[in-house]
Predict the 3D structure of the following.
Amino acid sequence: MKKPKHHIFICNSFRLSGEPQGVCNKKGAPGFMQYVEEGILDRGLDAMVSSTGCLKVCDRGPAMVVYPQGWWYGELTEERVDEILDALQEGKAVEEYLLC
């Protein structure tokens, strides 16, 4: 398996029991998985997307993290995801959406 240049993690609020709970899941994070995957393919990005358990930023969810850069984004919308993926093509972060 070839290691991707970027790995995008989307919080789906899974707890140790495996049950999805919390803000990210309730605000539509599962739908972002497909949306981000399609955005990666449309842009030809060398990236993969994975679902995560709770990222502990519930007050700013839905949230995602881009590695290896370590960029944490919150309050995702489809429009924000598009901007983030467009910037990722250029190797840049969208500063105004970064959580830290």
The beta strands are 6-14, 47-53, 64-67, 71-73. The first strand starts at residue 6 and ends at 14. Helices lie at 22-26, 29-43, 78-89.
